[in-house]
């Protein structure tokens, strides 16, 4: 069959998740002809965005999907707090201002948001929740992009990019082989490099060998490498990553949020030698699991175990994978292959300390015991390329590219170089994608 896909577009978007889809829709709405290439097959499209639940928005008053208000200055203050002020503040202000308009824009693009009055999700005046989660968002944005006339190609990876005065020469790897095309402007929205296991080993050392990648296996950092090869200024730290505690029995990639372990303050966490890593009750916030990722990464074999008794089991609630149970400490040690004498001594010491801190801390007394094996799970890396406030890629030596743009995780480290702010990743993706798409359409015209 003859391939009717034209070989020249106004805008090529690489990466078919939140940032790329928002860029493609925005560029198309601005009148550009747009092709979007997604490395994954159709069934696995949508990158890390598939796993996201909520996004952070500045707003002046209540809306059906978000209560109260959250002023841009509060948003910026939260960002400055988690980054210790190490952020590109003019860019952060631009993106925060634009976050105020992103929910209506996404709604108009077919995305559905959870209504507040349902009361089934945690209260937040800072974030709106996606109805049906990230996968529903991705499906809605693809449907809208295609209805608008964006040409979508799956199983298609951007492998080379050479901007010239007029056009960018682009090389794609497709199921049918190599393909060359021309595009007036290119938006690189290919996520981070969290699935590049060889590079992670260089950056993080042997601890990377057992890392669980919570998101897409298609985010191999290829787009980032291409931009760096063009002279893009790097931002952030390749070796800095957001690590959380996940069930070791989950899949190596794409386990998403269901394998994350959130019940740590209800038990004790020990390594393979039976020793506790830290005080499990020192941080009982909902986000406590993020403290434990780096601790588990530092354990022998990066392996640890959360152990609870029957009281703790009730408090932990249901988990994706059932715990290992045992009627005694000795039997649990045998099943987990931990030295029984060492685990017994740890539990005795913990119980003696707990007896002095009751009722705030309860001893592990109600048998049988239950345990989950834990590994560090990588959510995202704090590394990308520098952009200006129009998402144009900034080049080393103070220049900027007029035709190459970056959006989403590919540029998120401009704003979030370390730390974590719930709902920020998806906001940065949608907002920067929208801006990049509009600016790329303008550059193409
Ligand atoms: C488990 C989990 C839960 C999360 N929950 C939340 C949340 O609730 N709220 C929040 O704000 N953030 C959350 N995040 C972070 C959030 O998902 C990301 O910040 C956001 O989705 C990034 O979107 P993106 O479009 O930039 O990149 P991604 O969603 O990572 O997508 C990148 C896309 O590029 C494609 N690609 C890669 N290389 C190429 C190439 N060379 N050519 C073509 N295509 C390529 C990939 O296939 C992928 O589709 C979560 C992340 C994970 C892993």
Automatic annotation (TrEMBL):
Name of one Pfam family that matches: FAD_binding_2
Coiled coil: none
Residue span, FAD-dependent oxidoreductase 2 FAD-binding domain: 10-417
InterPro entries according to UniProt: CobZ (IPR012831), FAD-dep_OxRdtase_2_FAD-bd (IPR003953), FAD-oxidoreductase_2 (IPR050315), FAD/NAD-bd_sf (IPR036188), Succ_DH/fumarate_Rdtase_cat_sf (IPR027477)
Keyword list, A-Z: FAD, Flavoprotein, Oxidoreductase
Top-rank taxon: Bacteria
TM region(s), chain numbering: none
Cross-referenced SUPFAM superfamilies: FAD/NAD(P)-binding domain, Succinate dehydrogenase/fumarate reductase flavoprotein, catalytic domain
Cofactor field: FAD
Record carries keyword Transcription regulation: no
Gene3D superfamilies in the cross-refs: FAD/NAD(P)-binding domain, Succinate dehydrogenase/fumarate reductase flavoprotein, catalytic domain
GO molecular function: oxidoreductase activity
NCBIfam families attached to this UniProt entry: CobZ_N-term, PRK08274.1
UniProt-listed PANTHER family: FAD-DEPENDENT OXIDOREDUCTASE 2 FAD BINDING DOMAIN-CONTAINING PROTEIN, FUMARATE REDUCTASE
Protein name: Tricarballylate dehydrogenase
Organism: Rhodoplanes elegans
Encoding gene (name): cobZ
């Amino acid at each position: 069959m003859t391939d009717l896909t034209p070989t020249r577009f106004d805008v090529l978007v690489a990466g078919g998740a939140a940032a790329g889809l928002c860029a493609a829709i925005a560029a198309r709405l601005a009148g550009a002809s747009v092709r979007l290439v997604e490395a994954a097959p159709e069934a696995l499209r949508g990158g890390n965005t598939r796993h996201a639940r909520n996004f952070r928005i500045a707003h002046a008053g209540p809306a059906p999907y978000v209560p109260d208000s959250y002023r841009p200055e509060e948003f910026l203050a939260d960002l400055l707090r988690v980054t210790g002020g190490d952020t590109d503040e003019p860019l952060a202000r631009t993106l925060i201002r634009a976050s105020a308009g992103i929910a209506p824009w996404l709604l108009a693009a077919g995305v559905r948001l959870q209504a507040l009055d349902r009361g089934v999700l945690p209260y937040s005046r800072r974030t709106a929740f996606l109805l049906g989660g990230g996968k529903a968002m991705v499906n809605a944005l693809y449907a809208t992009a295609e209805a608008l006339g964006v040409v979508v190609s799956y199983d298609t990876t951007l492998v080379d990019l050479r901007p010239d005065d007029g056009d960018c020469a682009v090389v794609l790897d497709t199921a049918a082989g190599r393909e060359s095309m021309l595009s007036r402007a290119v938006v690189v929205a290919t996520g981070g490099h969290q699935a590049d296991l060889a590079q992670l080993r260089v950056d993080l050392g042997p601890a990377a060998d057992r890392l669980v990648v919570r998101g897409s296996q298609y985010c191999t950092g290829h787009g980032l490498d291409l931009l760096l090869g063009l002279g893009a200024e790097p931002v952030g730290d390749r070796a800095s990553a957001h690590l959380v505690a996940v069930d070791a029995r989950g899949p190596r990639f794409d386990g998403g949020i269901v394998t994350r372990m959130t019940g740590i303050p209800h038990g004790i966490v020990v390594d393979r030698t039976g020793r506790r890593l830290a005080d499990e009750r020192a941080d009982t916030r909902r986000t406590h699991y993020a403290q434990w990722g780096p601790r588990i990464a530092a354990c022998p074999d990066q392996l640890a175990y959360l152990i609870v008794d029957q009281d703790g089991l009730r408090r932990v609630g249901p988990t994706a994978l059932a715990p290992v149970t045992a009627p005694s400490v000795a039997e649990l040690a045998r099943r987990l292959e931990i030295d029984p004498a060492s685990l017994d001594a740890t539990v005795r010491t913990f119980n003696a300390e707990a007896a002095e801190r009751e009722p705030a801390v309860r001893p592990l007394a109600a048998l049988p015991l239950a345990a989950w094996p834990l590994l560090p799970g990588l959510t995202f890396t704090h590394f990308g390329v520098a952009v200006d406030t129009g998402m144009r890629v900034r080049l080393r030596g103070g220049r900027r590219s007029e035709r190459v743009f970056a959006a989403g995780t590919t540029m998120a480290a401009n704003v979030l170089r370390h730390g974590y702010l719930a709902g920020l990743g998806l906001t940065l993706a949608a907002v920067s994608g929208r801006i990049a798409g509009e600016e790329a359409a303008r550059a193409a015209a």
